[in-house]
Design a protein that fits this description.
6 strands; alpha/beta; about 35% helix; 7 helices; globular; 6-stranded parallel β-sheet; Rossmann fold; about 10% strand
Length: about 280
Amino acid sequence: MATEADSYWHGFPKIQHLVIFGDSYSDVGYLPKPHLRPSDKLPLGVPYPGVTWAEDDAPNWVGYLLKEFTPGHEFLVYDYAIGGHRVDGVVHQIQNRFIPDIGDKPDGARWSSDDTLFVTWIGINDLAFTKDRKAVDDSLGKLFEQQAQLYELGARNFLFIDVPAVHRSPAVAERRSANVLELLAYWNIRLRHFVTEFASTRFDVTTLIYSSFALFSRILDNPEEYGFKNTDPRLRGGGIWLDHIHPTTKMHHEIARDIAAFLHTYSSSDRTGDTSEA
């Protein structure tokens, strides 16, 4: 276990760079270009809020985290997420986007192990095409091969986000919900196993696991407590779901708020964290 002295995690307020891999839930339309990287004037690398999969010209959780829930300052966001991607897509994002873009810490993008948080939120699209547990383990094994490479490049602070409760989305008929949940729950359980294994041999990493499943479940169970309508949980085009599977910007606001609260929970002396433990 890392001690406070050898940990690279000094708390969320010390983060200066966010590096994100994932799918449509995190996509802001950033295309890496050496002459157009994130900067103080353009912290997303694209005009705010980017091109998201929420409503037109509306932020997703990344934009809200940047603008409303920052730790006292705006950080720079290198968001390589691409809508529709699975774990194979994250491999592409790391190998063909992140590494050529800022993997070697070029001038103008001098991230460090201390001031950078690497975020991975993936799995929804994998589960749409996955039928068995072995495929889940194979996908997660491939994902953590990539995390190991990020570690070799200097990444030390990692945030992993599990799969949300999409079995309760309009995309899934209620009669199929239990079947979808079975494999989804397995993914989330195994994600925690892989995170634990990853951290067990790398004593200077901080690994945090944020449960979007828990947040979505709370909101879907009690929508009115979060400012939604009782009719929203299964409604396509309602307050929670923009369409069959993508959250509205209002829902993304709740995601960002909850992620920020989670990150603020862990001080410089913490090495692991998991919202599922709460």
